[in-house]
Amino acid sequence: MRSYNIVKRPLWVLAAVLAGSIHSGAVAHSAAPLSATIAPTGLQQGDNSLYLALGEYQGLSQLMEAFVLAIAVDERVIHHFERVDIERFHQMLTLHLCELTGGPCEYTGADMVEVHRGMRISSAEFNAVVENLITAMQQQQLSVSTQNRLLAILAAMQHEIVYPQEQK
């Protein structure tokens, strides 16, 4: 991964959402298949088609790099990441998405409610992060169907991330 001039610059939420990087949860990346029944991701056990469509671990890492860079310059959300270690954020986000998309990773970090507790993330901020992810996916030239499959998984977490008074 490249070096950034923004190493201690604040980042955002969805990534922290997915990565649990605000807390010190451990994540392991192994070659073993994901063992789950029907996960909260909506994927069937053993379904790694989304993981493959995203370019496996390397493709996810590249996507998350583009995503993190987009978030780092987005004034709408950057204030949530004043003390985030960007390298760790990128790594944890990539690993969590690897698991969520059926890849051979196991996320053992804090759940999304715990990760975002006290952050008071608004619906507008959540949507801003989603816009950044869409931009990163378009830059990576992912198909619309692949983008929609990933967004559907992440949308299911919205209620765990957005501050309750902001939800309708």
UniProtKB/TrEMBL annotation:
Pfam families in the record: Bac_globin (PF01152)
Record-listed heme binding positions: H116, H159
Keyword Membrane listed: no
Keywords: Heme, Iron, Metal-binding, Signal, Transport
InterPro entries tied to this protein: Globin-like_sf (IPR009050), Globin/Proto (IPR012292), Hemoglobin_trunc (IPR001486)
GO molecular function, one term: metal ion binding
CDD domains: TrHb1_N (cd00454)
Glycosyltransferase recorded as keyword: no
Signal peptide per UniProt: 1-28
Name of the protein in its database record: Truncated hemoglobin YjbI
Species lineage: Bacteria, Pseudomonadati, Pseudomonadota, Gammaproteobacteria, Alteromonadales
